Amino acid sequence: MSRFRMPAAVAALGAGLLFTCVPAASAQSAAPLRALADRAHVRIGTAVDMTALADDSTYRATTGREFSSVTAENVMKWEAVEPQRGAYDWTKADALVRFARQHGQAVRGHTLVWHNQLPGWLTSGVADGSIGAAELRGILRRHIIAEVGHFKGRIHQWDVVNEVFDDDGSPRDSIWLRTLGPSYIADAFRWAHAADPGAKLFLNDYNVEGVNAKSTAYYELARTLRAQGVAVQGFGVQGHLGIQYGFPGDVAGNLARFEELGMETAFTEVDVRMVLPADAAKRATQAAYFRGLLDACLATRHCTSFTVWGYTDRYSWVPGVFTGQGAATLLDEDFTPKPAYAAVRDGLAAGRRAVSGA
Ligand code: XIL
Q1: CA distances to 79, 115, 129, 177, 353 from 125, in Å
Q2: What is the pLDDT of residue 354?
Q3: How far is the CA of 273 from the centre of ligand 1 (A)?
Q4: pLDDT, tens digit, 9 for 90 and up, residues 246-295
Q5: pLDDT of residue 3
Q6: For residues 177 and 222, is the Cβ–Cβ distance under 8 A?
Q7: Which are the contacts of 134, defined by CB distance < 8 A and separation ≥ 6?
Q8: Please, are residues 275 and 294 in contact by the beta-carbon 8 Å criterion?
């Protein structure tokens, strides 16, 4: 039985109390998301754009007020932290960790091994053959140990490998797979664990919300690595949805099977885009999709954080990458809450009443 499930009599009592003691909806809607999330035993997180955090006081205040977890949208990626070989630049990442400490927020580390946003010296060295397999393995090892070591004790969940499978469940082609073979994944987890044994180490990808070929590839990978004693401790579901594609099937069931392996789960990058222009019907569907992912998290005992990939359309990555699409976040460009914000707020306020899973 879950620690969040109450006996029926207590639940009925709670329902009675709801009518007598709980503040009216208007008062409750003034509570920031993080206060509601605390009561639901989940972290509510956002990706943070460090340029906006430096320049925009509304963004800074909202980020601090609403969220209990932050993820660097870009500044912990390899191209940002080691732009020249051997010359690390932690300035912006350190600023985020400092902001988080000042606001009582957890930090998700994103990301150690990826095929995108690699420094030019690395990709060109591999491409022209001047960096061979043995050297590349050493470079990856140093990178992981340097970055995880730099933030030791200050990152609660690391996305160790990001997007390492294709949608059909086959290993994604990358400089890592091509040069080092599939063992780079276990190596990355071993190095990260050695550098900070206290951090929870995650796999992370998109299109793995439901049970499908790709999420099953992750399930098999996690099962195999854990059987070998590798510290693969979390499964991160990015949650980049678009309303034109429909809502993924059996999200809670997917999370539950990872938890049965003894892992944590998390939504790590949720946004729900739409073909522009937005209208009321699309916004309502979007709200239902946010709520659907959140409810799956809250229905899963060890789903520990629900992170959105930016919370205002003003700074969302979506329009720049998905032509003709956008309006993917909880607040519009003027920070006005959309139905999706109310849906997340109401879902957090409803809490973990119907918990199932491992
Ligand atoms: C995106 C950022 O939001 C953009 O600012 C950047 O230009 C590209 O990367 N999956 C991930 C994230 O794991 O790191 C990506 O972030 C979005 C998709």
Answers
A1: 14, 14, 6, 16, 53
A2: 57
A3: 14
A4: 999 999 999 999 999 999 999 999 999 999 999 999 999 999 999 999 99
A5: 35
A6: no
A7: none
A8: no
User: Where residue 29 falls among pLDDT bands split at 50, 70, 90?
Assistant: low
- Is residue 25's pLDDT more than 90? no
What is the pLDDT averaged over residues 191-215? 98
Rounded to 5°, the CA angle 252-242-254 comes to 15
- Taking residues 190-204, what's their average pLDDT? 98
Looking at residue 214, what is its pLDDT?
Answer: 98
pLDDT averaged over the chain? 92
Structure tokens belonging to residue 213: 């070929």
User: Is 163 in the active site?
Assistant: yes
Q: Whose CA is nearest to atom 3 of ligand 1?
A: 317
Burial class (CB in 10 A: 0-12, 13-18, 19+), 61: exposed
Query: 176-180: long-range contacts at Cβ-Cβ below 8 A with a sequence spacing of 24 or more?
Result: 176/113, 176/115, 176/140, 179/126, 179/132, 179/133, 179/136, 180/133, 180/136, 180/137, 180/140
Report the amino acid identity of residue 10: V
Q: Which amino acid is at 142?
A: R
* Active-site entry in 66, 163, 209, 264: 163
Q: How far, in Å, from the CA of 151 to the mean position of ligand 1?
A: 21
Res 63 pLDDT > 50:
yes
Q: For residues 137 and 131, give the distance between their C-alpha atoms in angstroms, rounded to a whole number.
A: 10
Rounded distance from Cα 46 to ligand 1 centre (Å): 13
CATH superfamily of 8-356: Glycosidases (3.20.20.80)
Cis, peptide link before residue 111, omega less than 30° from 0: yes
Ligand 1, residues 202, 321, 325, 329: which to mutate, most atoms within 8 A of Cβ?
A: 321
Is 333 catalytic? The answer is: no
The single-letter code of the amino acid at 119 is P
Percent of the chain predicted with pLDDT > 90 = 90
Long-range contacts of 333-338 (CB under 8 A, 24+ apart): 335/58, 335/62, 338/283, 338/286, 338/287
Asked if 309 contacts 326 with a C-beta cutoff of 8 angstroms, the reply is: no
